[in-house]
Amino acid sequence: MQLTLEFGGGLELLCDSVKIHDVNVIPNLEADKLTMKDLLVWVRTNLIKERPEMFMKDDSVRPGVLVLVNDCDWELSGQLDTPLEEKDVVVFISTLHGG
Amino acid sequence: MESKGSEAARILNEIETLKATRSDLDNRISALEAQLRHLNPEENSVVSCPSISTGFGHGLSPDMIYRYSRHLLLPSFGVQGQSNLLKSSILVVGAGGLGSPALLYLAACGVGQLGVVDHDVVELNNMHRQVIHTEAYIGQPKVKSAAASCRSINSTIQIVEHQEALRTSNALEILSQYDIIVDATDNAPSRYMISDCCVVLGKPLVSGAALGFEGQLTVYNHNRGPCYRCLFPTPPPTTACQRCADSGVLGVVPGIVGCLQALEAIKIASAVGEPLSGRMLLFDALSARIRIVKIRGRSLQCEVCGENSAFTRQQFKDFDYEKFTQSPLSEASLELNLLPEDYRIHSRELKERIGKGESHVLVDVRPDHHFKIVSLPNALNIPLSSLESRSAEISSALKEEEKRKDSGFESSASLYVICRRGNDSQRAVQLLHKMGFTSARDIIGGLEAWARDVDPNLPTY
Ligand SMILES: [Zn+2]
User: For this UniProt entry, which segments traverse the membrane (chain A) (predicted)?
Assistant: First the structure.
């Protein structure tokens, strides 16, 4: 499944400072679908190069990270259960505090 | 040389005298203004309270009509929008990178009452982004400087100075005097505190943030939209809360976000347009991209604004935001104390030892781009993150040093570790001891202490 993943607010530092990743994720064979839960595992394994605790906590993202699926907060689409489709754009962004 | 020195001293002296005169004049002007208000409260209300009746049926005086004419010419803004603005009151918390442009535009556009809270003083390393302040105000309170700039742009509105840190003890009292709150602060505990206070008081909150090359903006607690806690119920780990003072920020980035904050505040105050509530604007300066995303609505389970929560004024006053977020409300730098005393050394003592020719290796554990700004002579740059993988370099530098000295007096060369402020150097020394470098000692206070106590010519940043 072709997906575009974007990291911002400092999270890109965890994946070689690359912000935009066009990736091909193979869905779980049995389930034959891909959810955000699966994608997080995939990201942790394949994209996060350092300090995974700065990206994830337990099986979700750490506090202070917003997840947007096609420019929409994942809280509105089922969080970890959000189903993903071909060409979806998923954004992970860390909240900023500076000024 | 000497005549140059005395010339400089003379100029410095004159600057000091002039500054004293200026502050004297400022004080006299303030006193006279207060006197005038006292003598003639009616007349004064013409100056500071813009809602007077002039017979055009809209309360705008001829001067106001001329000053705000370009607003009045906007069909969808017009007299009504401007009147609303003139009757509104807006508080900007923080007169820094975000607050600077926000305050300038809010003053210029004719917000009736504009308040500013800050406890900091203007510093030279603020000025690349905090464009409301001028060099003449370095060392003076930001609130005073910001208020002076606002008044020089628009003397017809009321500017209120709150020269204090916002805390749970004063936040309710200060925020309750305003219709709209602009969060232009720079740290996590303040953001939670201001949002909670806005929920308790039922005020809309225009929240902006910027770091590096990125900015974020949204309106909380407005039109049934979420509050800050709905979005971030659990505070992030402190390691994820980077500060401009550590990570850097391109000056114009908070400038852009601050302008957008002014815009959102103006929209709410004038009741024109569609506020950025339930949506968030994400700005990426490097790729020149702005993305506006839909965020969750008010959370029924929110501990502060949710259906079943009853977060009271008293609970707010008692809430410990620094403990909750594990980070300080003020920008004051963290000072770690991780090491026993004999693993540490003061910069003055080190200077003496080096002067006596002690054989040593100095490792600077700051990131490479910091090292490029300024470093001590002969320092070996090995960033903290690669200390373990590059330990062989330290071993060979120590051996080299011992060989070079080969005096026989010292059994081994000393190992000193420095960083910017003396925190990472302690972490590094802990790590080095674990790796077997038992002579490793950290230089207390880092390069900042070195610049203060040993070499005042060393640049700080
Ligand atoms: Zn809430």
Answer: none
Q: Where in the sequence is the domain holding B229, given as residue range(s)?
A: 88-325
- Reported as type and span, the H/E element at residue B345 is strand B344-345
User: Encoding tokens for residue B291?
Assistant: 């993305």
Q: With contact defined as beta carbons under 8 Å apart, do B297 and A72 qualify?
A: no
* Residue B6 confidence (pLDDT) above 90: no
**CATH of residue B430:** 3.40.250.10
Residues A34 and A27: beta-carbon distance below 8 Å:
yes
What is the distance in A from the centroid of ligand 1 to the CA of A53? Answer: 26
CA-based nearest residue in chain A for residue B101: A99
In a domain, B75, yes or no: no
Written as one letter, the residue type at B375 is: S
Query: B218 and B98 in one domain?
Result: yes
Report pLDDT for B319.
97
Report pLDDT digits (tens) over B61-74. Answer: 999 999 999 999 99
User: Taking the C-alpha atoms of B255, B260, B264 and B270 in order, what is their torsion angle to the nearest 10 degrees?
Assistant: 80
Q: Count of CB contacts below 8 A, A vs B?
A: 103
Distance CA B276, CA B258 (A): 14
Whether residue B235 has pLDDT greater than 70: yes
Mutate which of B118, B185, B207, B216 to test chain A, going by most A C-beta atoms within 10 A? Answer: B216
Q: Are residues B346 and B320 in the same domain?
A: no
Question: Given the DSSP bridges, would you call strands B414-418 and B440-443 parallel, antiparallel or unpaired?
Answer: parallel
Per-residue pLDDT tens over the stretch B88-139: 999 999 999 999 999 999 999 999 999 999 999 999 999 999 999 999 999 9
If asked whether residues B175 and B269 sit together in one domain, one would say: yes
Specify binding-site residues of B for ATP.
97, 118, 125-129, 142, 186-187
Quick one: B355 exposed, middle or buried, by C-beta within 10 A (0-12, 13-18, 19+)? exposed
Chain A residue numbers touching B244 (CB-CB < 8 A): 98-99
Q: Which of A54, A68, A99 sits opposite B209 (nearest CB)?
A: A99
**Contact: A93, B242; criterion CB under 8 Å:** no
Portion of chain B with pLDDT greater than 90, in percent: 78
Q: What is the ipTM of this complex?
A: 0.95
